[in-house]
Amino acid sequence: PTVDVIDKQDAVKICAELPGMAEDDIDVYVTDSALVLSGEKKEEREEGDKEGERYLAERRYGSFSRTIAIPEGIDHDKIEAKFKNGVLTVHLPKKPEAQKPSKKIKVRADA
């Protein structure tokens, strides 16, 4: 699945598009350095004619697994995952000691 990873000062937010799936079909795991999204879209079989005519089904089915690296300092006890309208959103809050402000680096022209 396609994902967006947003690294904010206080948390990392990961959004994955999973159209046609239900929350029971999705598994979310976290390790020290990665978030693992996996699941399976099950095929619903129909055979024969539909309303007296042949028909074609081109929807995709199968399993997936996606591993996304996460930064150090994530509070594993406070991770939340929500699924709505085909989008999985995982909120990974950072521990206070990992919430350091970013520092801007000046870009200079090379002479």
Characterization of this structure:
The chain has 111 residues and is mostly beta strands. Helix content is 0%, strand content 41%. The strands form two sheets. A four-stranded antiparallel sheet has the order 1-2-7-6, with no helix packed on it. A three-stranded antiparallel sheet has the order 3-4-5, with no helix packed on it. A hairpin with a 3-residue loop joins strand 1 and strand 2. It is elongated and about 70 Å long. The model has no long low-confidence stretch (mean pLDDT 88).
Order of SSEs:
EEEEEEE
- Output the strand order for the largest sheet: 1-2-7-6
Number of strand segments: 7
Helix content: under 10%
Structural class: mainly beta
* Cα-to-Cα separation, first versus last residue: 44 Å
Largest beta-sheet details: 4 strands, antiparallel
Label the overall shape.
elongated
Query: What proportion strand?
Result: 35-45%
Task: Report low-confidence residues grouped into runs of 5 or more.
Answer: none
Q: Work out the radius of gyration.
A: 20 Å
Mean pLDDT: 88
Number of helices: 0
